[in-house]
Write a structure and sequence with these properties.
With 426 residues, the chain is an alpha/beta fold. Helix content is 39%, strand content 15%. The structure holds pyridoxal-5'-phosphate (PLP) and zinc ion. The site of pyridoxal-5'-phosphate has 18 residues, from helix 5 and helix 10.
């Protein structure tokens, strides 16, 4: 049973039947999936969700789970599903103490099948793509999406074409190629890749997860919001901080909270949502800080390559969500990003990629300024694994000692280190 009604333009409200389209043909506004919320409210409860699978698909009634629409009779078995979602939401008291926050939590989305939150959006996008009759999946990616599309396509038996900027981190390149995708490295930045993909999408009958099937894709990020609420005992946090590239994830976490309130699954309470970017690619944060609301495209230059989208598709909607919920936006330097990665690892045992460093470093600034308040229940979304961006920390950390396999050698290394510490203190 699916509760999806169709697609609707966010700007002018015109409606469209379910298809692989993403912009309104009248006003060029983005299209969004619409649902029969009355029917969902009748059928969906905390108990029915708890009986669902231990994955993001426990929220299937609130997703474009089109397989069931297709009438194949195969139902959920036709989902494209590697088990994304229901990642841990863990309290982070040691990091909280370092940042001056009393009730900090980490949503650890490094623990998805291809180690980033992109598995959520891809699982939904490819499920919809297959139901809409596509046999080939494709995407323009800053790295994590490439890995996720390649992995999910492999499992689903779909052909795939994955387009990336040619300067991406090696683990992301190899980590996509290993799944047997057609990996296309483009000499240019993400915005160049995306432009090319818009043209390719017009020529070939492929499902581009973040182009022609973007309305379905984007809905997958709502599951971050649903999970946070469920994991907090069906209550909303006071404040969520999320990294922004296109801005879509942030917008959809906010939408998830609105839907839960509308459905009576959580009690109505104000929440705030804040966004984090790298200073070297901060078009959305810049528009927030200068108060213009005008998102001006930039040429990215940052170690946070996963967030390096200079012309963000959902920038305006991210600004709207942050303003409406009285959140904020911040940006941080490459050095602060590395310090953010290190601080999270040292205090909470979670190793994040550069995007996570951006989130923690921005949270640190916002907490220091009192914008994120000490007593708030804060959730920081950590969206990708540190092993994907080892270059960012290479040379900054390493072995404490390099010794021969002899006890005396270890003991003298310990003594030398103790002496060095003493000297440093003196
Ligand atoms: C690890 C990671 N975090 C966050 C984002 C931001 O996603 P969005 O484009 O939805 O803002 C991305 C996007 O590629 C990402 O790879
Ligand atoms: Zn429109």
């Amino acid at each position: 049973m699916s509760y999806v009604e169709g697609l609707q333009c966010r700007e002018c409200g015109r409606t469209y039947p379910l298809a692989a389209v993403h912009v309104c043909e009248f006003c060029f506004g983005p299209l969004e999936v619409t649902y029969d919320y009355d029917a969902i409210a009748r059928d969906v409860s905390h108990a029915s969700i708890a009986q669902g699978p231990p994955s993001m698909w426990r929220y299937a009634p609130l997703l474009p789970a089109l397989t069931e629409d297709a009438g194949s009779g195969a139902g959920p078995r036709h989902r494209v599903d590697l088990g994304a979602g229901l990642t841990p939401l863990v309290p982070a008291p040691r990091l909280g103490e370092a940042l001056g926050l009393d009730d900090l939590w980490i949503k650890n989305d490094t623990l998805n099948p291809s180690n980033s939150f992109k598995d959520r959006v891809v699982s939904v996008a490819l499920t919809a793509a297959r139901a809409l009759g596509f046999h080939t999946a494709a995407c323009a990616s800053t790295g994590n999406l490439a890995q996720s599309v390649a992995a999910h396509s492999a499992q689903a038996g779909l052909d795939s074409y994955v387009f990336i900027p040619s300067n991406l981190e090696e683990p992301k390149v190899l980590g996509a190629a290993i799944y047997g995708t057609n990996l296309v490295a483009v000499k240019g930045n993400y915005d160049d890749v995306n432009r090319l993909c818009a043209e390719v999408a017009g020529e070939y009958g492929w499902a581009f997860v973040n182009v022609n099937v973007r309305p379905y894709y984007a809905e997958g990020s709502k599951t971050l919001g649903f999970e946070i609420a469920e994991q907090l005992g069906w209550s909303l946090p006071d404040h969520v901080i999320a990294p922004m590239a296109s801005g879509s994830m942030l917008v959809k976490i906010d939408k998830a909270f609105s839907e839960l309130v509308k459905l009576g699954l959580v009690s109505e309470a104000p929440w705030r949502i804040s966004g984090a970017q790298a200073t070297g690619c901060s078009p959305i944060t810049a528009a927030f800080k200068d108060g213009s609301g005008m998102v001006r495209p930039v040429k990215p230059s940052t170690i946070a390559k996963s967030l390096a989208i200079g012309n963000p598709a959902d920038g305006y909607y991210a600004l709207e969500a942050v303003a409406r919920t009285h959140g904020a936006m911040e940006d941080v330097s490459d050095a602060e990003i590395v310090e953010g990665i290190s601080l999270l690892a040292r205090t909470e045992g979670i190793f994040a990629e550069t995007a996570g460093g951006v989130t923690i470093a921005c949270l640190r600034k916002l907490a220091a300024a009192g914008t994120v308040e000490r007593g708030e229940r804060v959730v920081a979304v950590i969206s990708g694994l540190g092993l994907k961006t080892l270059d960012a920390i290479a040379g900054q950390v390493g072995p404490a000692f390099t010794i021969t396999p002899a006890l005396e050698d270890f003991q003298s290394a310990l003594e030398l280190a103790a002496a060095a510490r003493q000297e440093a203190r003196a």
